[in-house]
Amino acid sequence: MVKTISKILLSIFSLCVVCLIIGCNVDLFGLFASNDLDERLEEKNNFRYLTSDERNTVFPDEFSFIVLTDTHVEDGNTRDLEKIRAEINGDVKFVAILGDITQNGAEKDMKAVTEFTRTLGVPCYPVIGNHDVYFGNWPVWKKFIGSSRYRINGESVTLFILDSANAFIGKAQVDWLEKELKTAKGKVFVLTHSDFFVQDKIKIQQLYDPAERARIMSILRDKCSIVLTGHSHERVEKEFGGVKYLSIEDYKSTLTYCLVKVTPTGVSYEFKKL
User: Fold this and answer.
1) How many CA atoms lie within 13 A of 16 on its CB side?
2) Distance CA 250, CA 268 (A)
3) Fewer CB within 10 Å of terminal CB in the chain, N or C?
4) Which CATH number fits domain 35-273: 1.10.3720.10, 3.30.70.1150, 3.30.565.10, 3.60.21.10?
5) pTM for this one?
6) How far is the C-alpha of 188 from the C-alpha of 181, rounded, in Å?
7) How far out from the chain centre does Cα 61 lie?
8) Helix or strand or coil: residue 35?
9) φ, ψ of residue 33 in degrees (nearest 5)
């Protein structure tokens, strides 16, 4: 028994050392924390945070929206996040936060974030990240937000928010996306937490199932404008099948956000640093 425990501890220590050596930025606790995916995906029609008007809205033919990610709010401190309010003008119609909104899913942090976002004057669309369900805190997300996957309907734009907090999306959710795309109006944007691509081959933050990534990318081909992700804390820009795959650096340490501009003729984006 003692030998078995020693082997387990040695294996864990070795894994930690390897991760430190190769600089893969793996959050080891995240490998074990998010074990409730099936339950999360059952909440697809449950909305606590978003109102019906926010989920079914009218966007003008020309507008902008703000995207940021990995805010990692902790101890109820939203001061850095509050800086984004000054960036919202009449052209900005909504804000999206692409996961790891909180550091560990604590209730006081989710409460602080949702209370702040209600002061923005425009809707805020939250995306669930691995940190947001740490320590079994999925019930906290469910209490304040509700569903971890959902759709935003507009005549000129449709948004699909996917749950990739476990570093995969799963067949049921991909099936849902494929079905829902058939009725999507206007330009399509997909928002999720985990990356489709990373810059370095030794990094492992991206969606880990190549077959799943390939299927999603095939489904989205020529149907989606941009897939927006976070998680790896670095900017990555790729393109496949007429779709831009854009991973945004973390807001927590860089205070960087992406401003996406939608016009009748296309979509463009630029990065801004506060």
Assistant:
1) 7
2) 20
3) N
4) 3.60.21.10
5) 0.88
6) 8
7) 25
8) coil
9) -85, -30
